[in-house]
Amino acid sequence: MYERMKSLEIYQKQKDTPDMEVESIKGEILKLDTEIRSLMDRMAEADDVVFAYIRSDHGC
Fold first, then answer.
1. What dihedral angle (degrees, nearest 10) is formed by the CA atoms of 20, 21, 26, 32?
2. Nearest to 7 by CA among 59, 15, 54, 39
3. Integer Cα distance of 3 and 9 in angstroms
4. Which domain holds residue 41?
5. Are 54 and 60 contacting, i.e. CB atoms less than 8 angstroms apart?
6. How many domains in the chain?
7. What is the 8-class DSSP label of residue 56?
8. Which distant-in-sequence residues (6+ apart) come within 8 Å of 5 by Cβ?
9. Domain for residue 3, yes or no?
10. Would residue 9 count as lying in a domain?
11. pLDDT tens track, the chain, 60 positions
12. Which residues contact 60 (CB under 8 A, 6 or more apart)?
């Protein structure tokens, strides 16, 4: 029983320590998410410009 408790304690300590690779990947995901949101905002602005052009005399 003592050995089982020790193995659980070791597992818990390992679980509590952050995995640097996982943290690095999380950081990259957050960075990509920010870039995607920025691009989506720019696309929304571009839609407004395109629709304004279509409605103007220069359009169809």
1. 130
2. 15
3. 10
4. 19-60
5. yes
6. 1
7. S
8. none
9. no
10. no
11. 777 776 767 666 666 667 888 889 999 999 999 999 999 999 888 888 888 888 887 655
12. 54
Is 29 among the domain residues?
Answer: yes
The CA R_g of the chain, rounded to the nearest whole Å, is: 26
Global pTM reads 0.53
What six digits make up the tokens of 42?
A: 């720019």
DSSP states of 16-53: HSPPHHHHHHHHHHHHHHHHHHHHHHHHHHHHHHHHHH
To which H or E segment does residue 58 belong?
A: none
Dmax (CA) of the chain? 84
Encoding tokens for residue 28? 């990259």
- Quick check: is 5 in a domain? no
